[in-house]
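User: My advisor asked me to double-check a structure prediction for GntR C-terminal domain-containing protein before group meeting. I don't want to rely on an old file, so could you generate it fresh from this sequence?
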Amino acid sequence: MPSPLTNAAESGSVNAEAASARWASKRLSIDECREIYLMRERLEPLLLSMAMPTHTAESFAEFEASAARVEEAASRGEFLERDRDFHRALMAGPTTIRLQETVDHLWNLTRYYRRQLLAPNGVTRRSRREDIFAEHHMILKAVVDGDVESAEAMMALHIRHTRKLVEQHPEIFMHSGQGRSSQCRSRRLG
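Assistant: Sure, here is a fresh prediction for GntR C-terminal domain-containing protein from the sequence you gave:
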């Protein structure tokens, strides 16, 4: 079974240096990040619409519980993991050849920037968290109602809000305060 770091390397979120214990987290330019968010805005609603026919009353209850767990998260890491679980649950179900893998890959590439927005000294304020919760509930309502068009629109809007916030804060693309975008940052694993 491959290690989590091997899986991360295969997904493109980190680069492994052969025969060493060095892993380099892939960092994006603001233009790359914007493009990835634009792709997510279009692909995640598609995957959600494909998943909706497979949802059941039991899955609706799980979605509600998952949304509540996001709201109860105590740390930014916990918040990000629970948020991912919520999104993955909503989009689970359809058998796809490439779409689910592509959505997961794009999600992984933007995770660092969502984490920066949630940092204690980050730019996201409590009000954005409240917006995220409200958006989750609007997506969930459309899903439960079987309103594919509204669910797709709300999912796209939800992702767009984060993209706009990322674009408003180019400082999260700076590396070590050197005044330039970072394409890569290495760290040694112990």
